[in-house]
Write a structure and sequence with these properties.
The protein is mainly α and about 220 residues long. Helix content is about 75%, strand content about 0%.
């Protein structure tokens, strides 16, 4: 079994608000771990009457708590990345990315550079958009720290992106009825599909606004 498989097995036996927060913090830091195997199974388990996640007896409220704790974890991980980037600086961050330990974390200078280029292209809002993009989600906080993005703006965009992403994952957990193995197997495809749907929604909203403006 891989390390991720071992963590998933442990998580299945210790699923609670603390473990959700901890694993989402890991997922949002530079340590690779898929959020797709944290929030969806928890959203499904919350519907079980004897579950520790059935805190209020109201499924929607319990799922909202899962989303909020998951978002808290995501913000903790993002703040760690941001703080380390500010403290260590670009040279050390790039050296770490190309070190043996960095490679164990699936990092490389090429990945950091890609995240930096994305941040420069999209600006501060990239910390929001980046939460929906596989391969960028875990790293987008690094260029934000390296560029010393305003911390308040960083927190806001990170919270908004993580909250929406976790809401989508929670809905996915309800639809998939707790199929953790299936979600894990197709986690990348799920991320891409969600990104496409978000892009379609944004495009539809933009077209409607444009049509409304042309009518005036």
């Amino acid at each position: 079994m891989s390390l991720v498989d071992n963590i998933i097995t442990w998580y299945s036996a210790h699923m609670n608000y603390a473990s959700i927060t901890a694993l989402m913090a890991v997922e949002s830091s530079f340590i690779p771990f898929p959020s797709e195997v944290v929030i969806p199974p928890a959203a499904f388990v919350a519907g079980q009457p004897d579950s520790v996640l059935c805190a209020t007896g109201n499924y929607l409220v319990d799922v909202l708590l899962i989303v909020l704790f998951g978002t808290l974890g995501a913000m903790i991980g993002a703040i760690i990345n941001y703080g380390l980037s500010v403290w260590l600086g670009r040279i050390i961050i790039y050296k770490f990315a190309d070190s043996k330990l960095g490679h164990l974390c699936l990092l490389s200078s090429e990945k950091i550079q890609k995240a930096e280029e994305y941040f420069r292209e999209k600006g501060n809002v990239s910390t929001f958009i980046g939460r929906f993009i596989p391969g960028i989600r875990q790293l987008i906080s690094i260029p934000a720290g390296l560029s010393r993005m305003h911390f308040g703006a960083f927190l806001w965009w990170t919270f908004l992106g993580a909250f929406i992403w976790n809401c989508i994952l929670a809905a996915l957990g309800y639809i998939a009825a707790g199929q953790m193995d299936l979600i894990k197997e197709y986690s990348h495809e799920i991320s891409v599909a969600i990104l496409i749907l978000c892009g379609i929604a944004v495009a539809y909203w933009g077209i409607k606004k444009l049509i409304a403006l042309t009518k005036h």
